[in-house]
Automatic annotation (TrEMBL):
Alphabetical UniProt keywords: ATP-binding, Nucleotide-binding, Transport
Residues annotated as domain ABC transporter: 2-233
GO MF, one example: ATP hydrolysis activity
Matching InterPro entries: AAA+_ATPase, ABC_transporter-like_ATP-bd, ABC_transporter-like_CS, ABC_Transporter_VariousFunc, P-loop_NTPase
Entry keyword Nucleotide-binding: yes
A Pfam family hit: ABC_tran
Keyword Repressor found: no
SMART domains in the cross-refs: AAA
Taxonomy of the source species: Bacteria, Bacillati, Bacillota, Bacilli, Bacillales
Protein name: ABC transporter ATP-binding protein
Length: 241
């Protein structure tokens, strides 16, 4: 579970990238975080993961306060950033072993997980190659595998489907469903509204740092008194006043 309570982040004295945002992402839930470019999605995610400090408010991950116990809180989640260009000089298997070492995953357990995940994403034959030789999509997949190697309770994914081939995108979406079916949590940002409509239990829409809506798709339709697609509602909610 992720709980944000009145969090804010400003980059100057006159404006806030995120302004007094509160929401809760429950266990057993796929939560989609939507918004136009510059809306505050990535800033929010970087506060949740501890990359950015919080100016105001509080964040808890599975009940652990990120500010007072950051190490314990960070052990609860796996984070896929919006850029897969990391540790390019390492071989794929070296990167995955590094990630397993960071989370104290035993040799026996990591071997099984790496083998299983690499097969699901079609990377089993390139793990001995340097990551800099990978395509963008392959880099995205190796980062995802690295994040999942310690089997975190909470997945935090920033535009995770970008660059993935259709088969791998389908695999990741199925894995999200499998994860939440176990009573665990998925929080992901996306620009692909069709994905949010088909995949998410609830969505949050942020614009100009302010949460415009949080709830189920049918609740959003009731809010607009219509049966329009999420795309039309999204455009209406995030259009400039």
């Amino acid at each position: 579970m992720i709980h944000l309570q009145n969090i804010s982040k400003g980059y100057n004295k006159t404006s806030k990238a995120v302004d007094n945002l509160s929401l809760t992402v429950h266990k057993g839930e796929i939560f989609g975080f939507l918004g136009p470019n510059g809306a505050g999605k990535s800033t929010t995610i970087k506060m949740i993961t501890g990359i950015h400090s919080i100016d105001e408010g509080s964040i808890t991950i599975n009940g652990i306060d990120l500010k007072t116990d950051p190490i314990a809180a960070k052990k609860q989640f796996g984070y896929v950033s919006d850029s897969p260009d990391v540790f390019l000089r390492l071989k794929g298997i070296e990167y995955l072993n590094f990630m397993a070492d960071m989370y104290d995953v035993s040799q026996e357990v990591r071997k099984e997980r790496i083998t299983s995940l690499a097969e699901r994403f079609g990377l089993e034959n390139v793990l001995q190659d340097p990551i800099q030789s990978y395509s963008h999509g392959m880099r995205q997949k190796i980062v995802i595998i690295g994040v999942l190697v310690h089997d975190p309770d909470v997945w935090i994914l920033d535009e995770p489907l970008t660059g993935l081939d259709p088969k791998s995108a389908f695999t990741l979406k199925e894995m999200m469903k499998e994860h939440t079916a176990k009573g665990k949590t998925v929080f992901f940002s996306t620009h692909v509204l069709e994905v949010a409509e088909k995949l998410c239990d609830r969505v949050g829409i942020i614009n100009k740092g302010v949460l415009q809506f949080c709830g189920r798709l049918d609740q959003m339709r009731d809010h607009f008194k219509s049966h329009e697609s999420l795309e039309k509602m999204f455009l209406e909610m995030t259009s400039n006043e």
